[in-house]
Design a protein that fits this description.
The protein is of the alpha+beta class. It has 2 domains: about 140 residues, Helix Hairpins, CATH 1.10.287; about 130 residues, Glucose Permease (Domain IIA) (Distorted Sandwich). The chain is about 45% helix and about 25% strand.
Amino acid sequence: MWKQLLLSVGVGVLVLNGPASASADQLTPQELVKTTKSLQKIERDVHASKQAVEKAERHVQAVDERADALQAKLDQVSTQLEAYETASTPEETSLFKQVLSSVLPSAKAEAAESEKAETDLKAREAEAARALEELSDQQAEVKAEREQAKASHAAAYKQLKAQAAQLTDLKKQKAAIAPDQFMIPATGRLSQGFGPASGQFGYTFHNGIDIAAKVGTPIYAAADGKVIDVKTSGPYGKHVFIEHDLNGQKWTTVYAHMHKIEVKKGQALLQGEGIGQIGNTGNSSGPHLHFEVHQGKYGYSSSSAGNTVNPMDVAEVLGGTSPIKAVY
């Protein structure tokens, strides 16, 4: 199997072309888990940034609406002020009218009424001028707020674009190093394969594979999943069951004859996270990991495959090396 491997180098990504086996031994489950967690974090950040961009867009829209409403008021008050100014422009009064208003009572009353109307008009004119000045000040504030809102939107969008690019790189990186389905869960030597067995320990069909290694060798989760059971006795000795949901298909993996169990029932796991150590507990003739893959729920049969599948058909070494040739 050939893969394009991407390894983190600082904040960038190094691309290596060639057979995955050339670089698979440089990869570790810890790097896979770190990449997965980084991917999850960036996905959360992208989601938060999208919300920030949407919020900034709504803010800009709200400020624009306020600016439009304010401009409409300004236009209205400006029109009123112009009308008041035109109405308050003094007309030339003839000498005859001036003399008449000083002699006749009716003319005097008319002049007084006219003077009062002019005073009221000037008051309304002054009020309109003050309103126009206040609206102008508000317009300046709204303009400054709009510039700030646009700057915030631009910054949020720029951050979103950078995070989206980082997310794309991380997805490529994980796709390059992560097995397509399951990961071979331990380093060691393939000591027994899947299929018919001799009948030792009471079974004539071996439902998994055995990976021989010294006691204490780390065991890792073969895929993202949840620990559904932990047992410490019986033919499998100390063993763990993990349930997985891959592309809508339920799977169950089993890790048996362990020396130490480091997970608890109900615990969620990422592919590559440690679950314990290889041991020699239960019906075991030497230190090894017995690894099973069940398509669906756990269903053991001592004489047939049952619902188990050959792990070699669905599990790969980290980085893509063929599990037939080597166990990482």
